[in-house]
Design goal:
Number of strands: 27
Order of helices and strands: HEEEEEEEEEEEEEEEEEEEEEEEEEEE
Strand content: over 45%
Number of helices: 1
Structural class: mainly beta
Strand order of the largest sheet: 10-11-12-13-16-17
């Protein structure tokens, strides 16, 4: 910025600075050469202008890219981009909220999502702009599993970004108390990633239709980095429930009761909780030549009883990793709610090609379940712990 006293100054020449990054010394030199006495030269920082792009209309399940690339700064000095979702619509997970062009998967259902872009220059000056993404409902994503109840999972892969997970129903049952159970899992399609397989579950699911009218949709994150999980009763007006399971947030429950909905989440580190000292010595189940597992359910009616192992399947990935999965359930001879189709503890065992064995236990519903693992033919259990409603995930690791 050049200030000239028009009463005393005479225009000798016009000085044009095309390069905004020219040095102060050069500016001063050019002005003096042009006949302008210089007492002070300084830059005036001009704030940036955010541009969040034009509003979009997309289909549910579509990958959406936000675009802040038209944001500009006269000083060519934008140092930070930040995208934030505002409003009360279904929350989505952005691939990178600090990127110029982050992406997300449009949730199921017709609604409008609002995003605010804030750009900041190196001097801390900011500007914000918003964009609205209108979502049109489609019928080609997610799965209607029962009674107008819809569920969906989207896996955030490194190879292809977000991909639709495939639903595999495991079974269903009706307990003596009139509660209905549906269980199964989502997995990555082998058409999308080479580790995808029907025998490599990525999210276990147990749905509990309580006789009292409550529905619990329980998601248990197994292995991949982030998985977006959704559910909805299609005949209500509450909209979609959505959350993201991660390696740290292994459990999400989305529940419905009296035309209202809610969601619970558990942070899990895979360690057994302190203060519990499993002291039993169950006979266990040989799920592999080198691996013996014992599980005991703490039943109010009888105390600790052996759970029954039911193998779901096994397979080998393209990378040479082996998987065994299944679940434990209460013996129907012990309790009236015990059933092979009413899982109490999901299990996935990962035999890594590098020589590591991960035994992953996922607590489903009953108060406390003790878990025991023995490896390489050991007569005594190497690892043990207690899963509970507050500590649903325990991981035992071995090397071979």
């Amino acid at each position: 910025m050049i200030t000239v006293d028009v009463n005393t100054a005479t225009l000798i020449t016009q000085v044009v600075f095309e390069d905004a990054k020219v040095s102060l010394e050069h500016i001063e030199y050019e002005l003096v050469q042009g006949g302008y006495p210089v007492s002070d030269v300084a830059y005036e920082n001009i704030p940036p202008t955010a541009d969040a792009g034009t509003d979009q209309t997309v289909d549910a399940g579509e990958t959406v890219m936000l675009d802040g690339s038209d944001s500009y700064d006269p000083d060519d000095d934008i140092s930070l981009y930040l995208w934030e979702q505002t409003g009360d619509a279904t929350r989505v997970s952005l691939s990178d909220p600090w990127a110029v062009q982050p992406a997300f998967t449009a949730p199921q259902g017709a609604e409008s999502l609002t995003f605010q872009l804030t750009v900041t220059d190196s001097q801390g000056e900011q500007s914000s702009d918003t964009v609205i993404v209108h979502i049109e409902e489609t019928d080609d994503t997610g799965y209607e599993v029962a009674s107008d109840l819809w569920i969906r999972a989207v896996i955030q892969t490194l190879e292809k970004g977000p991909i639709e997970a495939v639903w595999q129903k495991g079974g269903e049952d009706l307990t003596e108390g009139g509660h209905q159970v549906i269980w199964g899992y989502f997995y990555a399609s082998p058409e999308d990633v080479n580790w995808g397989s029907r025998n490599n579950p990525d999210v276990f699911v147990k749905i509990w239709f309580d006789a009292g009218g409550r529905t619990d949709v329980n998601f248990f994150h197994v292995s991949v980095p982030d998985i977006d999980v959704y559910s909805d009763y299609l005949d209500d007006t509450n909209g979609i429930s959505g959350g993201t399971t991660t390696l740290e947030k292994r459990y999400i429950r989305q529940y419905y009761e009296n035309n209202e909905t809610g969601m619970d989440e558990n942070e899990e580190d895979g360690n057994a909780p302190e203060g519990y000292l499993p002291a039993e010595d169950p006979s266990g189940n040989s799920v592999d030549n080198d691996l013996r597992l014992g599980v005991m359910i703490d039943i109010a009616e009888k105390g600790l009883v052996d759970a029954v192992w039911r193998k779901g399947g096994e397979g080998v990935t393209a990378g040479g990793h082996r998987v065994i999965w299944g679940h434990f359930y209460a013996n129907p001879s012990d309790v009236d709610w015990g059933s092979p189709e009413n899982p109490d503890l999901f299990l996935k065992i990962w035999f890594d090609a590098g020589g590591r064995v991960d035994v992953n236990y996922f607590h489903v519903s009953v108060p406390d379940i003790e878990v025991y693992s023995a490896f390489s033919g050991n007569s005594a259990y190497d690892e043990k712990g207690t899963t509970s409603l507050n500590n649903r995930y325990i991981r035992h690791e071995f090397r071979y």
